[in-house]
């Protein structure tokens, strides 16, 4: 007659073996190499007087630079808001079973994705050459295009309409990521197509939509530099005006670059937390930057005490 084996005590088994931590020699070696290269590059850049760091410090908070930064942020927010709103409409049109509606959205997306945004900006800026008077088809309305199409309006139209074409594909991909069975269930419950889209589909599609939308926002921030060609006083244009007077080209370009990097870093952190918000349904949420920093500091402290 067989007898059952006695259960093993985990504590007793653990005492019979010596636990050795895995050594990550290659990882630490790579970290040291990268750190050394970073120090060398930083020392070379900071010690090179041709960069004009004193001029950078002088103009980093200049009033015209700050105003240009404000214009850049304004263009980014407005163009992304308009572009996203149009993108949702275009995405729904692309998913429509009506061939006319679907085809119109396809032509729009193809046109604005197929031509450079710089060309589109110049086109809107010179719209008065095609339509000197704009009436919108309303009797008695005669608007002077040269007065109506200001550089700022041309910049907003060019950037927003172009962004709508790219964002529409992102929104469409997010909508397609939601199972169609949920739409059928919502229809069975009596919800209209609009209610289903607003309450069922789009909230779930946000997990797919948010990450590339964050990238598009950061891209929009940098794309606003193109409007300097139509004399919109954004960040790059303000820097160009200053270095056209004092001939300090490199330092003023560094000033603009530093502000772009700072705002991009803030947008990146915001994107991270928005992604984390919409990923709350996941069991394992990615650690926040503060949690990563704490983990890294704890690992360094543990190694130093040993």
UniProtKB/TrEMBL annotation:
Main localization of the protein described in the UniProt heading: membrane
Domain ABC transmembrane type-1: 69-271
Pfam families xrefs: BPD_transp_1
GO annotation terms (biological process): amino acid transport
Gene3D superfamilies on file: MetI-like
InterPro entries per record: AA_ABC_transptr_permease_3TM (IPR010065), ArtM/GltK/GlnP/TcyL/YhdX-like (IPR043429), MetI-like (IPR000515), MetI-like_sf (IPR035906)
Keyword Cell membrane: yes
Record-linked PANTHER family: L-CYSTINE TRANSPORT SYSTEM PERMEASE PROTEIN TCYL, MEMBRANE COMPONENT OF AMINO ACID ABC TRANSPORTER
Family of the protein in this entry: Belongs to the binding-protein-dependent transport system permease family.
Protein name: Amino acid ABC transporter permease
Organism (species): Nocardioides jejuensis
Phylogenetic lineage: Bacteria, Bacillati, Actinomycetota, Actinomycetes, Propionibacteriales
